[in-house]
Specification:
The protein is an all-alpha fold and 327 residues long. The chain is built from 15 helices and no strands. The termini are far apart.
């Protein structure tokens, strides 16, 4: 191994090293399982949105691929897991694998549409894919339930022992464990030579190609991976709510996850997680206190965030975790 390769390997090792704030974050997340009943339903939604935002961060924050139709993969995973539960077996882990496979397959088939063109072209293409899938699902009520949604799902016990209770404790544990495992995988990927090549492509794809990086293959791979993650999030939503509707494919779903990632910050794996926490807490609080005007206050928050700067929010959250870790 040359000196340059040794230095690069040491740099990757430093990037992959766990830090105290990260450990504190995950300890608190799993400690939330001990909260009294009534909180876990919201926490389950946070975990699912965090996984969805993580999937978008892989293509936007690390590869520079802008998407307005990320809900296509989310919906594909949700419907695949729901149909698998109804027609094959109610085992949630098997349904999760099917949801991941459905999202990955759709991502692979559509990845070639985003390899060329400007950011505006990619926005239109990704949005178009989601709209097409929405209409396909609406036109097949015998399979998807159409506007009434896919009903009659009876999800089996997790690991054959833990039933999905009304308070959402099992659902949150299931979603959080899935999020943690997939986060570990994403963390390894972005701190590898593959992850570094993605960041090089995001900054200057022509220069990366001149240096020998297979740009198209890298983009196809990360797009498929991100779609698989989104499919997992959709499968979790279908299984923990035992219901799938056309809402999983609507533009609002793509907009919500994009807002969550903007709040937390792209290009930082914890950005999607932090953004999901802030977005869901704000949404729940505002909808409870001002059900008629909560969208106004959410919009006002985003305007203030744009003026103040997202970096201050993410920096403040990092500092808070660091202070907790020191104590």
């Amino acid at each position: 191994m040359t000196r340059g390769q040794t230095i690069a390997a040491q740099g990757l090792a430093r990037r992959a090293r766990w830090r105290a704030p990260e450990i504190v974050f995950w300890v608190l997340a799993f400690a939330a399982l001990l909260l009294p009943p009534g909180k876990h339903l919201l926490l389950n939604e946070v975990a699912i949105l965090a996984l969805f935002a993580l999937s978008l961060d892989l293509i936007l924050g690390y590869a520079g691929i802008i998407s307005l139709g990320h809900a296509a993969f989310f919906g594909a995973g949700a419907y695949a897991a729901g149909l698998f539960c109804k027609l094959v077996t109610p085992d949630p882990l098997a349904g999760l694998v099917v949801g991941i496979a459905a999202g990955a397959l759709l991502g692979l088939l559509t990845s070639f549409l985003v390899l060329r063109g400007s950011d505006l072209t990619r926005l239109m293409v990704t949005l178009g894919v989601a709209l097409v899938l929405h209409e396909v699902a609406n036109a097949l009520p015998q399979w998807t339930g159409g506007a009434d949604g896919l009903q009659g799902m009876v999800v089996g016990p997790l690991l054959g022992r833990f039933d999905f209770d009304l308070y959402g404790r099992t659902a949150y544990a299931y979603s959080l464990a899935t999020l943690f495992v997939l986060f570990l995988l994403a963390r390894c990927i972005v701190n590898s030579p593959f992850g570094l090549s993605l960041m090089a492509i995001r900054r200057n794809s022509l220069r990366a190609s001149a240096l020998g990086v297979p740009v198209n293959r890298r983009l196809v791979a990360v797009y498929t991976l991100a779609a698989a993650y989104a499919g997992a999030a959709g499968a979790l939503l279908a299984q923990t709510t035992a219901y799938v509707s056309l809402e999983v494919l609507e533009f609002q779903r793509s907009a919500d996850v994009l807002l969550a990632l903007i709040i937390g910050g792209a290009g930082w794996l914890y950005g999607g997680l932090a953004g999901a926490i802030v977005f869901k807490i704000l949404q729940d609080t505002l909808a409870s206190n001002a059900p008629q005007f909560w969208m106004f206050w959410m919009g006002l928050f985003l305007v203030v965030l744009a003026l103040v700067g997202r970096e201050r929010l993410s920096g403040g959250m990092r500092g808070l975790l660091a202070r907790v870790a020191r104590r």
